[in-house]
Amino acid sequence: MAVTLTLTSSFIAVLSPTAAEADNPIIQTIHTADPAPLVHDGRVYLYTGHDEDGSTWFDMREWRVWSSDDMVNWTDHGSPLSIDTFSWARQDAWAGQAVERGGKFYWYVPVVNDATGRMAIGVAVADSPTGPFRDAIGHPLVENGEIDPTVFIDTDGQAYLYWGNPNLWYVKLNADMTSYSGSPTQIPLTTAGFGSRSGNAERPTLYEEGPWVYKRNSLYYMVFAAECCSEHIAYSTAPGPTGPWTYRGTIMPTQGSSFTNHAGIIDYKGGSYFFYHNGALPGGGGFTRSVAVEKFTYNADGTFPTINMTDAGPPQVDLLDPYARQEAETMAWGNGVETEPSGAGGMNVGWIDNGDWIKVEGADFGSGATTFNASVASAGAGGTVELRLGGPTGTQVGTCGVPVTGGWQTWTTISCPVSGAAGTKDLYLRFTGGSGSLFNVDWWRFDRSGSGGDLGELRAVEAGRCLDVPNQSTTDGTQVQIYDCWGGANQQWTHTAAGELSVYSGGSRKCLDAQGSGTANGTKAVIWSCNGGANQRWNVNANGTITNAQSGLCLDVAEYATANGGLVHLWTCHGGTNQQWDLA
């Protein structure tokens, strides 16, 4: 976080500080601080604080979550945790960290205890890395007036919670992750363990705050903010999780316009990444910070190299698929736009003015796109989405008009032809129109030559209800059903050129699948991770039936069910109304 210090929640339209190609800081729609990355299920989840605009102190009221699978395009998941989550808390949503254990996600954060007026450590829990999070115990986990919790689970299963400013403490967490054994133990801050600070008899060592503890090979690392103010990032190592610690030196020297810094380190897809914050965005500084990240390589002996702040950020580790539905709030850079909770679920991009744009890095168009689709809403005058490559004024490959829909959360899908979008390109969605806010964007997707495109809702003729993924499940093997048509993402089906029927359920792309590659009557129709198998290829026929390419069986509503929750399976084609599907 930042020296023991407190901020409001208005969003700002942040502009690129340098060239459009600069992708640090990685979040531009709001000011963020105190990054805590977590790798889970092949994706990086980034937990941050939120500095309120125009603050002159650490005015922070909520925490935010972002995620990426390529280290350059980041998806905004909003705020699943705030001061209000803790009934006993008063203020100061400062630096915390989340960790996964046993399928649950535990987020440890410092807040002011309203009853005592002191900083305390709370713990929130969720079933998903993006929340929503709830207070796990209804009271502080530990309280001694100090801040900046970090949590580490050792290879033997023992979990540790560390925190502190001006001191450094730890406790051994119990297996439930919401209680601990024994009493808080203070780690001695010796100059041998944490470096020497000159000219300060009260604080002779470099340690200031913001610990980050992890294990690499057989060595334990304690990375921390050093010697306020301005801070740099330093580190110590130890043979065990509680020491003894040996000071190793500086990682990131004092740089940038923020007088604090806070580090988080992960390994992901074969690379090592160092997260930090600075004040690089317009209006930025010590109380309006922004999270950035650098890729680095450890020295052969396990020590850190010197890492400097850059505006370029790390290279992209995977290309983005523009033919899969992409959330509009997934971006490498946002110019002038903001985000907000969407009435359709998740977040959407809003407060779009004339000339604003979004950059999506490294979109793999392959042999070429033919159509662009997007979900939009407008209570204003509408406008235009210009599709450009290479820059906000780069080659224009398509133009989509956005109509007035009658409300900022009244969504409709627009489509327009595309020409010249091929190969791997940086995509820019440039927004144009009149004055004031023009429209909102929820998601977008391209179609390629020969693809079936966006089918939308598929309504069972017999029941008059839509093909639906129950509860927006993302679990492989979930059997699909029929349910009242409501326009949710879990009812929006896409038929690809390869024959896949895919859907975005809970924000993840899943394919319609004949369970177990079954070819017998009654084989369940389920969602499954897309794998290109014949049991995931479907023919959408002119007579309204949908047949599985492997078995030739039809998609069938079991027992001619017409009520919500009627299950869908595969059956010998007979052309009955329970095997006929219309576009809703």
Note the overall shape.
globular
CATH superfamily of the largest domain: Glycosyl hydrolase domain, family 43
Q: Helical amount among residues, as a percent range?
A: under 10%
* Strand coverage percent: 35-45%
**Class from secondary-structure proportions:** mainly beta
Can you tell me the CATH topology of the largest domain? Answer: Tachylectin-2, Chain A
InterPro entries: CBM6, Cellulose-bd_IV, Galactose-bd-like_sf, Glyco_hydro_43, Glyco_hydro_beta-prop_sf, Glycosyl_Hydrlase_43_Enz, Ricin_B-like_lectins, Ricin_B_lectin
Signal peptide: 1-22
Site (Important for catalytic activity, responsible for pKa modulation of the active site Glu and correct orientation of both the proton donor and substrate): 148
Family: Belongs to the glycosyl hydrolase 43 family.
Keywords:
584 residues; mainly beta; Jelly Rolls; Trefoil (Acidic Fibroblast Growth Factor, subunit A); 3 domains; five-stranded antiparallel beta sheet; 45 strands; globular; CBM6; glycosidase; Ricin_B-like_lectins; hydrolase activity, hydrolyzing O-glycosyl compounds; polysaccharide degradation
